[in-house]
Amino acid sequence: MGTGMKKMDQYRMRGGRPLYGSVEISGAKNAALAILAAAVMTDDVVVVDNVPDVRDVRVMIGALEDIGARIRKLDKHKLEICGAGITGLSVDYEYIKKIRASYYLLGALLGKYRKAEVALPGGCAIGSRPIDLHIKGFKALGAEVDIGYGLISASCEHLLGNHIYLDKVSVGATINILMAASLAKGKTIIENAAKEPHVVDVANLLNSMGANIRGAGTDVIRIVGVERLHGTEYSVIPDQIEAGTFMFAAAATHGDVLVKNVIPKHLEATTAKLLEAGCEIVEYDDAVRVVAKGRQLHPTQVTTLPYPGFPTDMQPQMTVLLGLAQGTSTVTESIWENRFKYVDELRRMGADIKVESNIAIICGVPTYTGARVSAPDLRAGAALVIAGLAAKDGETIVDDVYYIQRGYEEFDEKLRRLGAEIELCSSERTNKRLMKKVS
Ligand code: EPZ
After folding, report:
1. N or C: which end of the chain has fewer CB within 10 A?
2. 295 and 228 in one domain?
3. How far is the CA of 219 from the centre of ligand 1 (A)?
């Protein structure tokens, strides 16, 4: 994939222009990753539409093809997947180091073949990311789970339904258990399950493949195992985090943007905070309009929580917005222990933010100033772009856009269509330009 080169790409932008117009939201990355893994749980063909064309999805496709699944691209967002030819039950470190979500193949393959092996994921930029709850779930279903030589291996003669209580709300563990339990014998109950829209989306896909899952979207999910799953056609839900990111970009630039192809219900926490911050929101059946033109931004308090709480994946974007509000705000991160790394970069753009353990105390400034900053991860990277678009003075360069491209489809194109002055370029050029300036 030539990741070395790609990592050097950067966004360059001149801010201060309000965003105007409308933007079309793509399919949800985090739903699509789990859905692609679940699609190989049958030997029939599964057609999945509204799959976002982003890097993480391409890595997942690579992982699936590597174990023998056949994937055909019907169009830019439509895939035909067939898990009949799967021969390998071991997912290489190559994939897991690029996307942790390849651990969904553990639940999918364990359910279908009673055996799976996936390289053990490490920590990442936002926290230590344990997987003890996934393991607890597989063991409760009767699998033997071993960790050694950098791998997690799970296997069993039979998977048997069980009552599983998750000590902490975990999206990943809920989905992994959901997949394996769909093909277990008997009834499984997951208590304290995650309620995120993508958990519901995976359950809906599995049900359309013949599974018997009830209660997805509440904190108790009941699954009655079935013998086999069959083919289906399915369309991934819109990406609530991509939608929220554009809503915050509209607010931070004092613009007026119609965010289209969304499920407004999934955006309630984001909408509530934008209203508190002084924006006007107009909701339609499948679109949300954010109006911030001529409005003063107000400070507020936010704590990230599992759905329907305010999403941790919107936390950096929220902080960037509140950095421009008139007064003092606080943002508390309760999901990941290390998700304020980007604040140092934001300070270089003039933000006045202090981080004390998991709380950011934000004193609003009238504007940011352009600077060269680096994206530490996917969502923080998108947030730094919002800061650059809001900066009234100077050029902003966001390095390492590789992270942003993991989860945002055509991010710069979509922003340009809203009137942003942003371009994607190779950092080599900037480096040469800077060298010339110095000499
Ligand atoms: C998903 O990660 C998302 N990733 C993350 O989005 C998102 O931040 C997160 O959910 C929370 O919403 C994908 O869907 C691919 P969790 P996941 O298991 O499933 C603890 C992005 O930017 N925990 O819900 O890995 C964990 O430490 C990414 O798109 C355990 O203790 O998150 C955390 O504190 C970044 N043991 C909390 O639960 C476990 O076994 C929530 O994690 C598992 C998790």
Report:
1. C
2. no
3. 16
Angle between helices 378-390 and 315-322 (to 10 degrees): 20
Q: Is 335 in the pocket of ligand 1 (CB under 6 A)?
A: yes
Angle CA 338–254–373, to nearest 5 = 40
**Within a domain: 284:** yes
At 116, which CATH number? 3.65.10.10
The reply to whether ligand 1 has any atom less than 6 angstroms from the CB of 409 is: no
Cβ(102) – ligand 1 distance below 6 Å: no
C-beta of 201 in contact with ligand 1 (< 6 A): no
Number of domains observed in the structure of the chain:
2
Residue 14 sits in the same domain as residue 37: no
Last residue of a domain, one of 216, 235, 254: 235
82 has catalytic annotation: no
Q: What is the pLDDT along the chain (439 residues), one digit of tens a residue?
A: 334 445 589 999 999 999 999 999 999 999 999 999 999 999 999 999 999 999 999 999 999 999 999 999 999 999 999 999 999 899 988 888 889 899 999 999 999 999 999 988 866 788 778 899 999 999 999 999 999 888 899 999 999 999 999 999 999 999 999 999 999 999 999 999 999 999 999 999 999 999 999 999 999 999 999 999 999 999 999 999 999 999 999 999 999 999 999 999 999 999 999 999 999 999 999 999 999 999 999 999 999 999 999 999 999 999 999 999 999 999 999 999 889 999 999 999 999 999 999 999 999 999 999 999 999 999 999 999 999 999 999 999 999 999 999 999 999 999 999 999 999 998 776 666 655 655 5
For the CA of 56, the closest atom of ligand 1 is 15
Contacts of 270 (CB under 8 A, 6+ apart): 240, 243, 244, 247, 248, 310, 311, 314
**How far is Cα 319 from Cα 334, in angstroms, rounded to an integer?**
14
287 in the same domain as 231 = no
Distances (CA, A) of 73 to 70, 225, 265, 353, 395: 10, 31, 31, 45, 39
**Residue to mutate, 102, 168, 304, ligand 1, most ligand atoms under 8 Å from C-beta:** 168
Same domain as 202, residue 219: yes
Is 221 exposed, middle or buried, given 0-12, 13-18 or 19+ CB atoms closer than 10 A? buried
List the beta bridge partners of residue 282. 289
